[in-house]
Design brief:
Layout (H helix, E strand, L loop, with lengths): L4 H7 L3 H6 L2 H19 L50 H9 L3 H12 L4 H9 L11 H9 L5 H13 L12 H8 L7 H10 L5 H12 L14 H7 L15 H8 L6
Helix pairs in contact: 5-6, 5-11, 6-8, 6-11, 7-8, 8-10, 8-11
Length: 270
């Protein structure tokens, strides 16, 4: 997807605002911008004031808050998303339909992984790698891995955790050159923060490195405007690789059940 550099920087508040952002914030802003452009190409509208820019004093929510907790729409006409009630025993598919939608980016990512013959674990990892951003946007790789950990293999959650760091670094063995986009948008001095570099150095020596790397490969090509995608091809893969609790997500007393309940009931005051 083509990005208008000047328009993008202007949407963040101008060059001075961008210069004050840390490298990780810049990367997150760019990825959210690409996701918004993708959804807009399919008829969905989101606000374009990026969630990772420092919140102004008059803000009513922090911009790191997930999409379910922030007003959506044009800056002059924002409205809280209207959320349908969840079923009594919600499944992952229910969350995709009622809380994660439109989910175009992750659906495109998983579709590409499916078409290129990736393993079912990698396909599901691509489908899930960004869904936690509906809950929280900060450090989404770590939060996302934690949220799904009780329900997937250790390898799959590990891959989601470290895709956040790996996306900053090229790997010619799989044709991954995503960092060039950051350089083109932010300049040649763009450098990820130390904790991201440390995570990358650890991950590249790990036995599951390639699973995490393949998420970034399919992440890179998952911003095609106007491409219609569906959850239907992944229903059986979810059934085989996601341990759906019989009580329903959020009610199974797992160590992350509260995270699913928070997305079910984002209007609860306490």
């Amino acid at each position: 997807m083509e990005v208008d550099r000047r328009a993008f920087i202007a949407s963040l508040g101008g060059a001075a605002v961008v210069d004050a952002m840390c490298p990780e914030a810049k990367a997150e802003a760019l990825e959210h911008h690409l996701s918004d452009l993708l959804d807009a190409s399919l008829g969905y509208t989101h606000h374009h004031e990026e969630q990772v820019v420092a919140a102004p004093p008059e803000a009513t929510v922090r911009r790191g808050a997930g999409s379910l907790f922030t007003p959506q729409g044009p800056q002059d006409d924002r409205k809280m998303p209207v959320l349908a009630p969840m079923p009594d025993k919600p499944t992952l598919v229910d969350f995709f339909n009622l809380r994660f939608a439109p989910a175009n980016h992750v659906l495109q990512s998983a579709t590409r992984a499916l078409k290129t013959g990736m393993s079912e674990e990698v396909i599901l990892a691509c489908l899930l790698h960004d869904v936690v951003q509906n809950l929280i946007k900060v450090d989404h790789g770590w939060w996302g891995a934690q949220m799904i950990e009780p329900y997937v293999s250790e390898k799959l959650s590990w891959a989601i955790r470290y895709h956040q760091a790996l996306r900053f670094y090229p790997d010619s063995s799989v044709g991954y050159e995503y960092p060039e986009l950051y350089v083109r948008i932010y300049g040649k001095d763009y450098v990820p923060p130390p904790y991201i570099k440390a995570a990358y150095e650890f991950a590249k020596k790990h036995k599951w490195y390639m699973e995490a790397r393949l998420i970034t490969v399919n992440d890179l090509y998952a911003f095609e405007p106007g491409v219609q995608v569906s959850l239907d091809p992944f229903i059986d893969i979810i059934g085989r690789n996601f341990k759906q609790p019989k009580e329903g997500l959020g009610f199974d007393n797992s160590k992350t059940a509260h995270m699913w309940r928070t997305m079910m009931y984002p209007d609860n005051p306490l």
